[in-house]
Design goal:
Elements (H helix, E strand, L loop, with lengths): L21 H16 L5 H8 L3 H4 L1 H24 L1 H21 L3 H10 L4 H14 L2 H15 L1 H17 L2 H21 L10 H7 L1 H5 L2 H31 L4 H8 L1 H20 L1 H24 L5 H29 L4 H26 L7 H28 L5
């Protein structure tokens, strides 16, 4: 199948001779999202189990994100060289075994090693986007990515709540058993449904490498990449700081925190739906700007509430819906733009873009942990998220100006 296909190919479910069904793509992205957040309400009990400080157990979030960034940088070019299917099958198998290892870990060091091996699942999310770009052209890709991520947005909505409930009933290990089972089911589904979508080119890896400078020196690529990195960075700062805010500032237990924690996913679901419906009509660049602006406005309003003394879990977590909404609009379009600068390097672009999003998120997650303390309340986290979302707006405007200079609306 050509990478430049302008119309969607025929897809038959559980037929390895055709591209994967959209349900498979949703689960490829969804299991990665579940791995990121299902255990977050259990962080305090995990710290107690392993006898370590909360800041150390938080490495299971920040170090995971940093390792994910490295994995995505490496796996993108590999999938562009050897194809999408074998990479997905191999990495999902590693994730499943690592999830079981985390359950059986005798100490924190072994647990952390298994946790970092779980980052293999990040390749499934990156490659799911590359597969979409293999199948359809850019504007259709933005719409399809929107629908894929809309379908998987139910995972971060329910994941923390499920994790909090599992923690209270069975202990923190139950969340990792859930991840192991999810990985095994995903492997079976990909084995029977994921046909290869990437057409290998003549010239091999050397020809592929020769195209990298065109990708890495493209202002359009970096505008999309950084807009997505800053916008999603606000969400990762939330991941790093919200458990502390929920438990220490608002005194929520694990199950309550799990329910509140999923609030951004509500907005993400709506935002992805809007991307699926309007990306083709409105255009990639304007959708990126709309999404960035929504996140910035939401955080500005939350800061105003905090300054006037409106401090309540419903206020704090309620405004996080804006983070989900903005990212739901921005990310599918920014990803489609990144993958379309050099369609032949869609896997590399997906990996590099994902690395910047996750790597920046890891840094912001750590920063969020440092700026919060018993006497600070949630304000330092809110300010951090506002600054990152404003940076996303700047990058979105940069992308629009660059597109006007080259005379392209969508690129």
């Amino acid at each position: 199948m050509s990478n430049a296909a302008s119309t969607a190919p025929i897809v038959r479910f559980l037929d390895r001779t055709t591209p994967p069904h959209i349900a498979t793509l949703i689960l490829m992205a969804g299991v990665g999202a579940l791995s990121l957040n299902v255990f977050l309400p259990s962080l305090p009990s995990m710290a107690e189990h392993f006898g370590v400080e909360y800041g150390l157990i938080q490495l299971s979030v920040s170090a995971y994100l940093a390792t994910t960034a490295i994995v995505q940088i490496l796996i993108g070019p590999i999938s562009d060289r050897f194809g999408r299917r074998p990479v997905v099958l191999g990495t999902v198998a590693i994730f499943t075994l690592a999830s079981l290892g985390a359950v059986l870990a005798p100490n924190f060091t072994v647990f952390l090693i298994c946790r970092l091996l779980q980052t293999a699942i990040a390749t499934a999310f990156a490659i799911s986007r590359a597969v979409v770009r293999d199948m359809v052209r850019q504007d259709q890709a933005a719409s399809m990515i929107g629908y894929v991520t809309m379908g998987m947005s139910i995972v971060p909505m329910l994941g923390p709540a499920a994790g909090g409930l599992l923690d209270e009933v069975f202990g923190w290990q139950a969340s990792f058993l859930l991840l192991a089972a999810s990985g095994f089911l995903l492997f079976i589904l990909c084995f029977f449904d994921q046909g290869e979508t990437f057409t290998k080119r003549e010239g091999g890896f050397a020809a592929q490498v020769r195209e990298y400078p065109d990708l890495l020196t493209s202002q359009r690529f970096w505008a999309y990449c950084l807009a997505a990195a800053f916008s999603s960075g606000a969400f990762f700062a939330y991941l790093g700081g919200a458990p502390f805010v929920g438990t220490e500032v608002f005194k929520l237990d694990a199950s309550q925190l799990g329910i509140y924690f999923g609030s951004p996913a509500i907005g993400y679901l709506v935002g992805n739906g809007l991307s699926g419906r309007f990306s083709i009509r409105v255009g990639v660049n304007r959708m990126v700007l709309f999404g960035a602006a929504i996140t910035a406005v939401g955080m500005a309003l939350l800061l105003m509430c905090d300054l006037v003394g409106l401090v309540h879990p419903l206020v704090f977590f309620g405004f996080m819906i804006f983070i989900g909404l903005g990212n739901g609009i921005l990310l599918p379009n920014a990803n489609a733009g990144m993958l379309s600068v050099r369609p032949a390097l869609a896997g590399s672009a997906a990996g590099l873009g994902g690395a910047f999003m996750i790597g920046g998120g890891a840094a912001l997650s750590v920063i969020a942990g440092f700026v919060l303390g018993p006497e600070t309340g949630a304000r330092p986290l809110i300010v951090l998220m506002l600054l990152t979302t404003m940076s996303s707006v700047v990058c979105a405007l940069w992308g629009i100006m660059r597109a006007r200079r080259v005379g392209a609306e969508t690129l």
